[in-house]
Specification:
β3, α4 (about 105-115) and β4 form a beta-alpha-beta unit. This protein is an alpha/beta fold. Helix content is about 45%, strand content about 15%. The chain has helices spanning about 15-30, 40-60, 70-85, 105-115, 130-140, 160-170, 190-195, 230-235, 240-255, 260-280, 310-320, 340, 345-350, 365-385; strands spanning about 5, 65-70, 95-100, 120, 145, 175-180, 195-200, 210-215, 285, 300-305, 320, 355.
């Protein structure tokens, strides 16, 4: 039986063994409550503090600006609902986001609209970049927050956050960015970006699931989304998930040291992968900006003429290759990719698209094997489609 090959790292990543090793003592030895004052609690607190320093270093942030959450979705919710509540939760409060955001943002915005908020969804162009001018034109006197993802989870296209920040600063509007996909793949520095809030998720950079971070710039007005105890400087109540936090800290530390490898080796494999497909399989194209440095180095979204994406995912899985058609958080939906549709791609292009996402654990041999299998699978499915 052929070895299984995982190329769906945008959905989740394997946990680095060094992360696992860092977490195990939290179950066996350092199991105290990090909010307790005794030695057991102090031992746990040290692990939390160490992790906070590692995450802050990854982001170029102050440790006091790092708030641990249960993941990227909670972080996004905290940013949106927290901004609204800090302003009194008044009806008519206005938010700006984009049509290519992750469901954690889009679904939350729909819920906020149902609760009385107003949301403007700005478009993206065919390259997958959001319209900066449209964001500027959308700002109102009642605008409380702009939320634009740092890099798209389906295409890997990096968004012009710094340009948007300039507009936001000029207009006096805070800005949040979902950096769940970009952190650990490219440098993400909050001072260089200039954002007021930023979301991270541990399981996207070889850390554990169930842990995330919301960076909150000092002075940002934000009400607590989860209330209760005084954990996280009263910004996120709930007993600290010390094992996951400790694991996230190591994952962040490791990610900082692998950024060059992601850009060079992983990016090189991705580029070779794309070149082969475009040269050897007719009727293929890369979805998203193809300029150097315009996309994350590990994501490749490719459309195949005369191919049904879901059928291809199943066929590849039967060959022990894991890929996807888009966001794992949209699984079960029969709707086509909202990201590709928002880019103006034709329905048949959207339906025939696959997302391949690599990690630093992906090997050249795996790339070669996937290309070999993909050639055969696409040819077979196209023949069946003619029948």
């Amino acid at each position: 039986m052929n070895e299984r090959i995982y190329m769906d790292n945008s959905a989740t990543t394997q946990v680095d063994e060094r992360v696992v090793e860092a977490m195990l003592p939290c179950f066996r030895q350092y199991y105290g409550n990090a909010s307790s004052v005794h030695l057991f609690g102090q031992d746990a607190r040290r692990l939390v503090d160490d992790a906070r320093r590692s995450v802050a270093a990854l982001l170029g942030a102050d440790t006091r600006e790092v708030v641990f959450t249960s993941g990227g979705t909670e972080s996004d919710n905290c940013a949106l609902w927290g901004a609204w509540r800090a302003a009194g939760g008044r009806p008519g409060a206005h938010f700006i986001t984009t049509r290519i955001e992750h469901p954690a943002i889009l679904t939350t915005c729909k819920a906020m609209e149902a609760a009385g908020a107003e949301v403007t969804y700005v478009p993206a162009d065919v390259s997958g970049r959001v319209d900066v001018v449209a964001i500027d034109e959308a700002i109102r006197d009642t605008t409380l927050l702009i939320s634009v993802m740092h890099a798209n989870n389906e295409t890997g296209v990096i968004q012009p956050i710094s340009e948007i920040v300039e507009i936001a600063r000029r207009r006096g509007v805070p800005i949040h960015t979902d950096a769940v996909q970009s952190a650990g793949k490219i440098p993400v520095n909050v001072e260089e970006l200039g954002v007021d809030m930023l979301s991270l998720s541990g399981h996207k950079l070889h850390g554990p699931k169930g842990i995330g971070v919301l960076y909150i710039r000092k002075g940002t007005k934000l009400s607590s989304y989860i209330t209760g105890g005084s954990q996280e400087r009263k910004r996120r109540a709930g007993t600290e998930n010390v094992p996951a936090i400790a694991g996230f800290g190591i994952a962040a530390l490791l990610a900082s040291g692998h950024l060059y490898e992601m850009a060079d080796r992983v990016g090189g494999m991705r580029n070779r992968f794309e070149r082969h497909i475009l040269a050897q399989i007719v009727g293929t194209r890369v979805n998203g900006d193809n300029e150097a440095g315009a996309r994350l180095p590990n994501i490749s979204n490719i459309s195949f003429d005369r191919l049904e994406g879901e059928a291809a995912v199943i066929a590849l899985d039967l060959e022990n290759v894991a890929v996807s058609t888009g966001s794992a958080c949209a699984s079960g939906s029969i709707d086509p990719s909202h990201v590709l549709a928002a880019m103006g791609l034709r329905p048949e292009v959207v339906q025939g698209s696959l997302r391949f996402s690599l990690s630093r654990f992906t090997t050249e041999a795996e790339i070669d094997r996937v290309l070999e299998i993909l050639d055969k699978v696409v040819a077979r499915l196209r023949r069946l489609r003619k029948c």
